[in-house]
């Protein structure tokens, strides 16, 4: 529509004027925001855009490979893929506190990103897909500077590297960014993806993060997502995901007692992530997903469904 096209044209114009012939880097997570930002920036500065995808090992199943493939196949983007999962895992060893996890991931991310970016001289700008809700939620509450959750992976990077920031979506909500992405021709499956937090599965494996626990969660999450897509429910939901709890519970399999992991499923409706309501699945759906997960994923013997709204709960569990 007119406003979307108008926004695209005027930001391309603005970015061109600002950037000139300088180089621009962008951390491409593969989420809607950074993906749309990448395509928009590419239109404005062409080969002067360098995208860096850092795989921190907390991504969902095959996610990094799929993202890279999508951009290589459909766009002429310059994407550098860095697999740093081992490093992130080693730094997170033994860490339980959620904010500590975020801090470690954020700092390690910056370290890697910075190293990579330094290989290019003449980089002047950093692009971030910051949205309006991120700006207000993480900056101030009633005039006091309070961080509810530290949301930004690359916070602090611009100052440290002496880069100037480009945040084309600072005044937009997610739906508006989706509309822009659509207009720019990004595939619908990409546009409609649920938001995924920067620290990824690190804040969904409650307690200590290990490769084994991440793998369990990846298998569970794949089953949940496929069911949502199969049953045509995915698009009705703002965000759906699985959480691996840090406790074991007793179960029974055949003649044996089991003592294994609990999975919590979460699905919420929302318009901006600031408030949210739990999604009313029918019982049959829940029964089916629960059975599938317990039958197919080794190490899980119980599934529960989260019926808390935000507030007072948050969307994520950590
Ligand atoms: P909460 O859990 O605060 O989540 O209700 C609101 C929205 O923010 C996402 N979220 C994050 N995004 N880094 C991110 O990039 C984070 O550390 C983070 N924590 C929460 C969450 O997935 C939801 O969409």
UniProtKB/TrEMBL annotation:
GO terms for molecular function: ATP binding; GMP synthase activity. Its EC number is 6.3.5.2. One of its GO terms (cellular component) is cytosol. Residues 2-193 form the GMPS ATP-PPase domain. Pathway: Purine metabolism; GMP biosynthesis; GMP from XMP (L-Gln route): step 1/1. The keyword Ligase applies. ATP binds at residues 29-35. It catalyses: XMP + L-glutamine + ATP + H2O = GMP + L-glutamate + AMP + diphosphate + 2 H(+). The keyword ATP-binding applies. It is an enzyme of class 6 (ligase). Catalyzes the synthesis of GMP from XMP. Homodimer. This is GMP synthase [glutamine-hydrolyzing]. It comes from Stygiobacter electus. The chain holds residues 196 to 513 of 513 of the full protein.
